[in-house]
Write a structure and sequence with these properties.
Layout (H helix, E strand, L loop, with lengths): L22 E5 L6 E6 L2 E4 H6 L10 H4 L5 H5 L2 H15 L13 E3 L4 E2 L8 E4 L3 H12 L15 E3 L5 E3 L4 E2 L2 E4 L8 E4 L3 E2 L2 E7 L18 E8 L2 E2 H7 L13 E3 L4 E2 H4 L3 E2 L19 E2 L2 E7 L6 E7 L7 H9 L10 E3 L14 H4 L7 E2 L5 E2 L7 E10 L2 E13 L4
Bound molecules: calcium ion.
């Protein structure tokens, strides 16, 4: 890739390099919620750039930029949204003076509040990491039939709850619910004792379809606007008791946390890699060609109430068995329509090594291998007051494109 240099001061290890330029929704004391682009430790107010007539040839309606979600902007289509990204990149290149000293264009990220980037009307969660599915299978069914017979034929998924998706920085409250301990004769009610994370990535649908239509796997990437970090909070004790036979319900729906910046698929193109070999061969409608996985380095930090952050997991999105194109093709193969802003999450992203497991369930192996933190305490699931931070970035040949973080503190259950 051609090396680009900016006139703007951007830290070398910034997730928000000139190659990235992700979209998000921000507000400040002076500015109402609106569309911004992250660059270094700043945000570019796109409405201010539009007011300087830089998007004139793209004909971007100002209402799309002065909006509290990206949905209308995404709806304009990739030709326009990528056009905006391209123009912003050109304006930031060394030699361009057009945005220098222009009032109102740049906002410091630390003085802005970030909002949920999209209005998510529908949220689907897949289960596409073979390492995660195998680990959970071993725990619940034993080594011999860890993977269900359908798993290598279908990108398994379920319909999640969109109303409780929250932005990075918003605390969660420990959920209460029904559970039944293994040796108990009847269920009990109370705060979850097994509150867990799920390290996931999500993609945002960028192009709607009509009911009855399908998205072929080879055209799926054109329907994906971009990606976010996603923490699919899970109360394992509630989940274990309720999930038979229809799957996850209240053990999942109390909250899911999403990162603030949507990194476009185009910014991730350079970091594509081949996925794991799929064997047995998948059905024709799920066949994809070329590099469908993306090398996104992921980590999870756990900060105890009075301690420092401990990195408890390092994984990678490239490990996924099923790719996004297959997920979207499968999701629509029955004619189910999708809408701009829909969120499709990957499922927990675990790797082969024990330090690459994307949930506490796996990291502490169902409570049997406590994780020791540097403040001397141990965890098998999360405590009240813990802060969990997911991070992700791509890096190749000195070029970095990242997602920032999704950070959440756990508050005690309501009395
Ligand atoms: Ca999940």
């Amino acid at each position: 890739m051609k090396k680009l240099e900016s006139w703007l001061d951007i830290q070398e290890n910034s997730d928000f390099s000139i190659y990235n330029l992700p979209f998000g929704i921000f507000s400040t004391k002076e500015k109402t919620a609106r569309v911004g682009v992250a660059i270094g430790d700043q945000i570019i107010d796109l409405s201010a750039v539009a007011a300087l007539k830089h998007f004139k040839k793209l004909d971007i309606p100002m209402e799309c930029l002065l909006n509290d979600s990206l949905n209308d902007f995404i709806e304009l289509g990739k030709k326009k949204t990528n056009g905006v990204r391209k123009i912003v990149q050109e304006l930031l290149l060394k030699g361009s003076r057009k945005l220098r000293n222009k009032e109102g264009v740049f906002v410091k990220q630390k003085s802005a509040k970030m909002h949920l980037p999209v209005v998510v009307k529908d949220y689907t969660d897949f289960y596409s990491s073979i390492e995660h599915a195998t680990n959970v299978g071993i725990m619940f069914r034993g080594k011999d039939n860890a993977l269900m017979p359908n798993w290598k034929h279908i990108p398994v998924g379920y319909h999640g709850r969109a109303s409780s998706i929250i932005p990075s920085g918003q605390n969660i409250v420990r959920p209460k619910g029904q559970s039944k301990a293994k040796d108990a004769t009847k269920p009990s009610f109370g705060p979850s004792k097994r509150l867990d994370m799920e390290l996931e990535m999500g993609f945002i649908v960028g192009k709607s379809t009509k009911l009855g239509n399908t998205i072929p796997a080879e055209k799926a990437n054109a329907h994906i606007f971009g990606m976010v970090l996603f923490n699919d909070w899970s109360a394992r004790d509630i989940q274990a008791w309720e999930y038979v036979p229809l799957g996850p319900f209240l053990g999942k729906s109390f909250a899911s946390s999403m990162s603030a910046w949507v990194v476009t698929l185009e910014a991730l193109e350079y970091f594509r890699v081949n996925g794991p070999k799929q064997s047995p061969a998948v059905l024709p409608y799920l066949k994809t060609k070329g590099k469908q996985n993306i090398d996104i380095k992921l980590e999870v930090g756990l900060t105890p109430p009075k301690g420092n952050e401990n990195i408890i997991c390092k994984s990678n999105y490239k490990f996924m068995y099923w790719n996004q194109a297959q997920q979207l093709a499968h999701h629509t193969v029955n004619g189910c329509n999708v809408n701009v802003g829909d969120l499709m999450a990957s499922g927990t992203i675990s790797g082969k090594s024990e330090s690459a497991y994307g949930s506490m369930l796996e990291l502490a192996w169902m409570g049997t291998k406590p994780i020791r933190l540097d403040d001397g305490t141990t965890r098998v699931f999360f405590n009240d007051g813990d802060t969990v931070t997911l991070r992700g970035h791509c890096e190749k040949d000195g070029i970095r494109v990242g997602f920032g973080e999704v950070k959440t503190k756990i508050l005690p259950a309501k009395k």
